[in-house]
């Protein structure tokens, strides 16, 4: 087969995933995850190349006049033979360009600021779930009834209840002698109480050290409802906005109309690791890009929901000579897991680059009065209750003596 002297390749810078620099000799050099993949593929093809960047800096979308923009349009007009730079495979694009085998896939999600700590007066109830507290109370009542029965009515159920309750508060309790069944129940209760107390104490300490967060917005359905409420903003790329507007899900269409009406279009080219994400703001972007920029940040929440997934591939036109060889090379790259390796290397480099700021950031804060207000309320409430009972005993004793 006669190979052309030079193959024209359309490329597009895409954040840290695809960085394009020009050497002193005027030659384009590629770095980043996508740049590494491009270097491997082109070197393996062994051809001569001319590189071109689309003037509109677009991947390619169908305009109102029926023409394609960006790299897809360059292939359609036979201006280039290949196009590469995080180019998604879509049915609409496949009508005008050819696709190689996919070398990776993207998942579109969103990131937001980590929700603030949950503030509650009753933090001391957090260590156990409501069902656990109910079961613990029922167990306390049942054990009190059994001990009262085995004591042959010498002590009432109420006295046993308060003695067992005191043991849960780590108070010393005098053990009365009784039958073998009674003594066995008391021994099992003390073992049970010890496990409960230690479990509660350790769990409460973990809640104080790492407080609970407010519930974040976890998926696109919740995001749509939040944005419709008027207090939240969500920025989408043009590509993802088109997906929202053409979705068959009502909540996505409503979200897309709000985004389009407010022109909340995300500019991914301006992102960097220190990009400020404000409260009540959501940034929708692909997972690989999010990992590249924000993988080392602990102040952001990454949604596990996916708006869509699509495969990434090389685009080519009918003139391209080496489709079979290109697919063979990409298959080897996929089997070797090179894309994942390059993505991991990029994250490590980003981590090392931002390590100083990461190390200086303080996620641990000293306990404040707000953290302990529930304990103080419980203490004051207990003192008031005890004082009330004390007064009641004094008044009762005077009436009895009379």
Automatic annotation (TrEMBL):
<feature type="transmembrane region" description="Helical">
    <location>
        <begin position="373"/>
        <end position="396"/>
    </location>
</feature>
<keyword id="KW-0407">Ion channel</keyword>
<feature type="binding site">
    <location>
        <position position="93"/>
    </location>
    <ligand>
        <name>L-glutamate</name>
    </ligand>
</feature>
<feature type="transmembrane region" description="Helical">
    <location>
        <begin position="185"/>
        <end position="209"/>
    </location>
</feature>
<feature type="domain" description="Ionotropic glutamate receptor L-glutamate and glycine-binding">
    <location>
        <begin position="13"/>
        <end position="77"/>
    </location>
</feature>
<keyword id="KW-0813">Transport</keyword>
<dbReference type="GO" id="GO:0050906">
    <property type="term" value="P:detection of stimulus involved in sensory perception"/>
</dbReference>
<dbReference type="InterPro" id="IPR052192">
    <property type="entry name" value="Insect_Ionotropic_Sensory_Rcpt"/>
</dbReference>
<dbReference type="Pfam" id="PF10613">
    <property type="entry name" value="Lig_chan-Glu_bd"/>
</dbReference>
<dbReference type="GO" id="GO:0005886">
    <property type="term" value="C:plasma membrane"/>
</dbReference>
<keyword id="KW-1003">Cell membrane</keyword>
<keyword id="KW-0812">Transmembrane</keyword>
<protein>
    <recommendedName>
        <fullName>Ionotropic glutamate receptor L-glutamate and glycine-binding domain-containing protein</fullName>
    </recommendedName>
</protein>
<dbReference type="GO" id="GO:0015276">
    <property type="term" value="F:ligand-gated monoatomic ion channel activity"/>
</dbReference>
<dbReference type="InterPro" id="IPR001320">
    <property type="entry name" value="Iontro_rcpt_C"/>
</dbReference>
<dbReference type="InterPro" id="IPR001508">
    <property type="entry name" value="Iono_Glu_rcpt_met"/>
</dbReference>
<feature type="transmembrane region" description="Helical">
    <location>
        <begin position="124"/>
        <end position="148"/>
    </location>
</feature>
<feature type="domain" description="Ionotropic glutamate receptor C-terminal">
    <location>
        <begin position="6"/>
        <end position="267"/>
    </location>
</feature>
<keyword id="KW-0406">Ion transport</keyword>
<comment type="similarity">
    <text>Belongs to the glutamate-gated ion channel (TC 1.A.10.1) family.</text>
</comment>
<keyword id="KW-1071">Ligand-gated ion channel</keyword>
<dbReference type="GO" id="GO:0038023">
    <property type="term" value="F:signaling receptor activity"/>
</dbReference>
<keyword id="KW-0325">Glycoprotein</keyword>
<keyword id="KW-0472">Membrane</keyword>
<feature type="binding site">
    <location>
        <position position="88"/>
    </location>
    <ligand>
        <name>L-glutamate</name>
    </ligand>
</feature>
<keyword id="KW-1133">Transmembrane helix</keyword>
<dbReference type="InterPro" id="IPR019594">
    <property type="entry name" value="Glu/Gly-bd"/>
</dbReference>
<keyword id="KW-0675">Receptor</keyword>
């Amino acid at each position: 087969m006669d190979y052309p002297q030079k193959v024209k390749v359309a490329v597009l810078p895409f954040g840290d995933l695809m960085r394009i620099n020009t050497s002193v000799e005027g030659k384009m050099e590629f770095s980043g995850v996508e740049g590494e993949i491009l270097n491997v593929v082109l070197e393996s093809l062994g051809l001569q190349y001319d590189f071109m960047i689309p003037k509109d800096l677009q991947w390619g979308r169908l305009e109102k006049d029926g023409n394609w923009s960006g790299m897809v349009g360059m292939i359609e007009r036979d201006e280039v033979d290949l196009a590469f730079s995080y180019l998604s495979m879509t049915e609409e694009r496949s009508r005008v360009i050819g696709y190689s085998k996919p070398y990776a896939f993207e998942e579109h999600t969103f990131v937001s600021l980590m929700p603030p700590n949950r503030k509650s007066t009753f933090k001391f109830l957090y260590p156990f779930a409501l069902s656990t507290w109910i079961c613990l109370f029922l167990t306390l009542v049942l054990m009190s009834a059994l001990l009262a029965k085995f004591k042959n009515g010498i002590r009432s159920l109420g006295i046993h209840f308060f003695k067992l309750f005191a043991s849960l508060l780590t108070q010393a309790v005098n053990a009365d002698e009784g039958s073998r069944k009674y003594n066995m129940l008391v021994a099992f209760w003390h073992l049970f109480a010890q496990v409960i107390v230690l479990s509660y104490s350790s769990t409460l300490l973990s809640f104080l050290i790492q407080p609970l967060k407010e519930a974040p917005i976890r998926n696109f359905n919740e995001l749509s409802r939040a944005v419709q409420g008027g207090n939240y903003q969500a920025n989408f790329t043009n590509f993802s906005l088109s997906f929202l507007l053409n979705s068959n899900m009502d909540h996505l269409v409503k979200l897309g109309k709000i985004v389009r009406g407010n022109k909340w279009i995300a500019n991914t080219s301006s992102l960097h690791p220190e990009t400020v994400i404000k409260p009540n703001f959501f940034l929708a972007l692909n997972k690989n890009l999010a990992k590249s920029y924000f993988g080392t940040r602990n102040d952001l929440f990454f949604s596990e929901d996916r708006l869509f997934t699509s495969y990434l591939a090389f685009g080519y036109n009918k003139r391209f000579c080496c489709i079979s060889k290109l697919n063979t090379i990409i298959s080897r790259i996929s089997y070797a897991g090179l894309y994942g390796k390059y993505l991991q290397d990029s994250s490590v480099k980003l981590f090392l680059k931002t390590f100083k700021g990461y190390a200086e950031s303080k996620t641990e804060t000293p306990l404040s009065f707000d953290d302990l207000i529930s304990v103080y309320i419980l203490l004051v409430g207990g003192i008031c209750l005890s004082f009330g009972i004390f007064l009641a005993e004094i008044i009762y004793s005077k009436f009895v003596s009379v």
